[in-house]
Design goal:
By secondary structure, the chain is α/β, with parallel strands linked by helices. It has nine helices and twelve strands. The strands form three sheets. It has a five-stranded mixed beta sheet with strand order 3-2-1-6-7, sandwiched between helices. Strand 8 and strand 9 form a beta hairpin. Helix 4 packs across helix 9 (about 255-270) and helix 5 packs across helix 6 (about 180-190).
């Protein structure tokens, strides 16, 4: 986990940094089409991040593209930015899909952005491969849902996805503060959380309840956390209060864990 955290901290430093850099050796591109954002990441053969570009956008909702042209245009822009930064030509990419959704949706967006899809992988499986999880759970809180996947012998054996995600946190803040959704989203992302935990804690407790209900039938100890909602200060403490017997593993920057796993997947599997 230490090496992964180093990579995640580096991504935080280079995200949307257009400063040119020279690279040697082979590299691979991953594209994560999320509910709240789209991320394109380039890693080298050791999985070291070389470039990362992201746009906040609600063009995909829980694995379904609600603004197809918008999604394609964003991917094209991110590709152009990465190509300019690294002086490379990107022709193919690894991409992913949420469990239970149609993989072809993500594939269509990437292909219509002018790229060949090198590999398709479901999101939790990419995280399981990246972190070498033999037995444990992955909890990914996206924009609209709380997703849980259970791994046994390094393979996903169970998945569940229920509505209650980052959008619900934002809506709760907006209602409490009497501000627009956009203003509340900015407040949440900027970690301007002073006094807000009491407001959003019931939403986090609901997420913990979702996880509890699905895990009670399994014997699991380690729970790995992914998704930008886990950047909210204090959220893991709420989960620990609700489920103290579990070992909650929070990466250095959970927002970028799945994009890194997607970009590294083929390298990892090779």
């Amino acid at each position: 986990m230490q090496k992964i955290n180093e990579h995640l901290k580096k991504i935080e430093q280079i995200i949307n940094d257009p400063q040119p850099r020279r690279i040697d050796g082979s590299w691979q591109v991953g594209i994560d089409l999320g509910t709240a954002d789209i991320v394109l990441m380039v890693v080298d053969e050791q999985g070291e991040p070389l470039a990362a570009f992201m746009e906040w956008a609600e063009v995909v909702r829980d694995g379904v593209v609600v603004d197809y042209i918008g999604a394609v245009d964003i991917v094209k822009r991110l590709v152009q930015q990465a190509e300019a930064k690294l002086n490379i030509e990107i022709k193919e990419a690894v991409t992913s899909f949420p469990p239970g959704t149609e993989p072809r949706i993500s594939q269509n967006v990437v292909e219509n952005a002018g790229l060949k899809v090198k590999t398709m992988i479901d999101e939790p499986s990419s995280v399981v491969h990246l972190l070498n999880i033999d037995h444990g759970a992955v909890v990914d809180i996206g924009g609209g849902t709380t997703g849980l996947s259970l791994a046994e012998n390094g393979k996903i054996i169970y998945t569940a996805d229920e509505p209650t995600g980052g959008r619900h946190v934002t809506l709760t803040i907006a209602g409490n503060q009497r501000i627009s959704f956009e203003e509340a989203e900015k407040m949440k992302r900027a970690a301007q959380t002073n006094g807000l935990m009491a407001v959003v804690e019931p939403v986090f407790q609901k997420m913990a309840e979702i996880i509890k209900n699905h895990l009670e039938k399994f014997s699991v100890k380690d729970v790995y956390l992914s998704g930008g909602t886990f950047c909210f200060p204090g959220i893991v403490d709420v989960f620990k209060q609700e489920l103290p017997h579990l070992n909650w593993i929070l990466p250095a920057q959970p927002l970028f864990l799945t994009p890194l796993a997607i970009a590294s997947y083929q390298k990892k599997r090779a």
